[in-house]
Amino acid sequence: MEKSLARYIWSNTRLEQIWILLVVAASMIPYFLSFDLPKQIVNGPIQGKGFEHPGDTQTFMHIAFDPPLIGHIEVFQGLQLTRMWMLVALSLIFLALVVLNGLFKLYINTYKGRLGERMLRRIRFELIDRVLRFPPLHFKRVKPAEIATMIKDEVEPMGGFTGDAFVQPALLGGQAVTALIFIIMQNFWLGMIAAAIVAVQAIVIPRMRKRLLELGRQRQLTARELSGRVGEIVEGIGTIHANDTTNLERADIAQRLGLIFSIRYDLYQWKFMVKFINNFLAQVTPFLFYLIGGFLALQGRLDIGQLVAVINAYKDLPGPLKELIDWDQSRQDVQVKYNQVVEQFSVENLIDPKIQVVSHAPAGRITHSLVATNLTVVDDSGARVLDHVSVEIQPGERVAIVGESGAGGEYLAEAFGRLVWPDTGRVSIDGRDLLELPESLIGRRIAYASSETFFFHGTLRSNLLYGLKHAPLIPPTYDEETASRVKWQMIEARRSANPELDLNSDWVDYAAAGATGPHDIYSVIRPVLDTVAMSQDIFDMALRSNVDTAAHGELTSRIVELRQALRLALHEEKLEELVVPFQFDAYNLQATVGENMVFGTLKRPQMTNRKLAAHPYFQKVFSETGLVSDLYDMGLEIAENAVELFTDLPPDHPFFQQLTFMTAEDIPTYEALLQKLNGKGYEAATADERAAIIRLSFSYIEPRHRFGLLTQMLMEKIVGARSKFYENIPADLASVIERYDAERFTASATLMDNVLFGRIAHQQANAPERIHRIMYDVFGRLGMHDSVLSIGLDFDVGSGGKRLTNVQRQKLNLGRALLKRADYIICNRPLPALDHRVQDQIARSMLSELDRNEYAPAIVWVLSNPSFAELFDRVLVFNHGSLVESGSSTDLLEKNGMFKELLS
Predict the structure, then answer these.
(1) Which domains can be identified in the chain, with CATH numbers?
(2) What is the pLDDT of residue 703?
(3) Which pTM value belongs to this model?
(4) CA distances for 797 relative to 232, 430, 461, 789, 809, angstroms
């Protein structure tokens, strides 16, 4: 990277800088005229110079030139104006100069702001581009939070400085010099005084600010280290809690914050000391002007107009001068930050940009062997984890790697996947070093899966298809307005040296996965998910999800058909009792009291149980039916039972997972409320207290909670109140309650609730599992597996995929590798979270599925369990970083060597 920030800015923006410097030079002309004009106004029409007699006139706007060789040129003879009209004309000219100077400033500041933002965009992209080209080993030495902080925060001032780098000293320096020259032209000695003060400010203040720069650098480093430490705490929170080291981390953070505080306090003290001295020097000059200038005016050596003009000119001198000094400090400060960025991002052995060039064309098949020659890999401690290993993997060959953990096989797999770079030797294909081949070939034709999984924040679909997103293949369709905006964005991207790649395009390489487009991609995804035993997980996620009716209109339009098919399937298997359907004239014992009252679902978060209980219409209707007091009494009983049963349990007790109407944090609140309302009736409670008590009854289910609170009479009253509730329901309440309708899809309910249109009878043995199985068959019978799969793939995996279990992450990671249909599939202990039986099942399923495919990839699998080796053509046995045995599992067993020891 360029060491000097000024050179970096100039090399990338020289044409723009030259243009804006020319504009700055042009702006000095009206700026100078605005100083001279007040003198003409005061001396001329105001004091009457040239207008000694009534009716005298003066020439206004006489424009003429006397260029050499050409002679006198008369452009405009001017206008003859009286004293009053001259005052008006000069004042209007002064106003015009003010507007013109303002327009110059507006244009200059806007232009340099845009220039700065482009440069900030450029440098941020360049840094992230370098991160993408860091060698793998470097990522073990840096903290992600520190890198992110540097790109996000530390380069921020560089964008603002880019616009000021050349323009600001030219503009401010030009303004200061213009003002100073004007003062000297009016009076030499006053000019020398101003020049002397300016010299002191220009020399003393920058020297004093060197201390500020050092403190600023220390502040930046400590803040970056704090960011990295906080990132470590977030990533290692499980380890911290498991080892009771929360207070150790608090002490560490407190010490870091204390150091930052002391640095910042010193910075503030020195900063305001410098500001005090600078302001003092700036205010001394007007004092001298008033004193000395006034003395010269009294002696007649300086007229009043000149004194006013000098004072007016000096008024504009401290501002540019102060800003110029600030610019110099900013320049040094930004240069320090830039040096730190250059130091952090100047990494040896960066990946050549040519290797990562975008390729829209399909990658050709790899038909040659994957060869490791004299391969040696050294870890960070200097130990050889792979020692002079040579091995050849033939196309289509199935190779198992066995050995104890750390024996060396894992590192060979990582070298094949380019996750580690060899210290000596190389991995090659057709004689070409793997590290020199483009990622558009290796990243598409070699798939790698290990136990170390990472998923980006987004949906399951985006993460599963991530390995197919190499280039924008299908451009989106834009309306005219959006197309114009996108075109402008692409132009700006080019000006900022960013790639002109449209993220809104469809990047998925469907052909590489064996599909023709988005309409049939699920026919490819489903076998892969079946292979890695992930289909049932995604089906369950779909059933628990709310369905976007706009995106999945085909399924939602067939909801009635699905409900009827489910009822028929239950009838055929004589399992009708597994589901209690919703009926408007009957109470559903498996549903909550709240659902039974409104015969529908609440649209959350707009409406909650507490809000419903406090709503005036709800209170009015259910007061008329007498249900409010019944629900209040039920809520009190629930609160008393819950407090009595759970008050002494720890907050993480599993009982609280079954307590749907109250959390562990609510127990103390309701305990205090019960003490206050003990022995008092409904009328004694406030409106908020009634709502808090009544809302407990909304989540009550008799067969589940079994407090014996739901009588037959109460159920009949609730059913009877439904019609009355909906008779005159206000619009605000109707908009947040979705009523159950057997002929309509309920958008605020889950897919499972919609298909069931009722509730599972939990008293039946294994009812949820049996219902899931029947539903799966129903969706398949109606040809809707792809629709359900699409809903499940909409599931948000969370940050780093943490909403998935470790088992699900490892399955999904392997599935992503299989979906690429690569020529070489490297599996580096990909499923250690699963038991050996499931690992064996997935491995057999995967090998069987790949045997049925026409492309027959080569597979290199580092096994966690050596007994699976019989599934492979060849077995490589590693020990202490060396390849000690190679052959089929049968041959190795006959040798009675290390492979047999590993099996025993």
Answers:
(1) 5-158+175-345 (1.20.1560), 370-467+800-902 (3.40.50.300), 604-735 (no CATH)
(2) 86
(3) 0.77
(4) 21, 40, 10, 15, 9
